[in-house]
Amino acid sequence: IMGSSTFRVLGVRQNGIGADGAQVLAEAIGQSRTMVSLDLAYNMIGYDGAFALAQGIVQSQTFQHLDVESTNLDAEAVGALAMAVRESKTMQSLNLAYNCVEPKGARALARALEASVSLRQLDLPYGSVLDEGACILAMGISHSASLRSIDLQGCNIGVVGAQALAEGIAVSGKLWSMNLANNRFGDDGAVALAAGIAKSSSFQHLKAKGSNIGVEGSQALRYVLQTSCTFCTVQVDPKSFNSVQLNVIERRPSKSVAGGVPNPP
Q1: pLDDT one-digit tens code per residue, 1-23
Q2: Which domain-ending residue is among 93, 112, 136?
């Protein structure tokens, strides 16, 4: 990898790699002039591995995508990778699914979002973010110059967290997608999200299945779907929308978004 002039992508998920192996890969990331992506999901790299990877990413002038889903990371390890996001000029996506992000890790990530000029996608599903962490991340979202998509599925986010995220959506001029499925914010959270989306100049896609949304919240989301110039897809549980049972509601924006927000991958 270090000597190659063409090597770009490495996938080694579920290969029994621990901290020592991660440290070797981190050295390769730091020295390679071409490597852009590493998939380390379902290994057991822990804090030492995450810290080494962070150092390698900071050294790299090309690295863009890291997947460390379910790799035994705690909030301290998340903080180390957040430092890499903050310092890197090329990092575009970070997948931390099924790790212990918690509010402490969310705080480090929020600071990274505020500082990063390149991160476009952040995935934190089932990371125990909670309301406290969601409120912290909302501040990072509102100040981010690059974030397009964030996944907070199954993060135990309630009304307070959803209200904060709604404010982040309203202020951000870049964010176009958020996954809030399998949380617990209910109608009050959905109404707040609808209000935030209505104020956004960029937001397009919301996933909120399994988040206890009833008719009131669904109707609020339907209304903003019909009136927003950008919002075009919402996924919720089957509820009554003017006596019509819908699972996914979708429409095309009535006009293009200023600045040309890209379609999601």
Answers
A1: 655 667 789 999 999 999 999 99
A2: 93
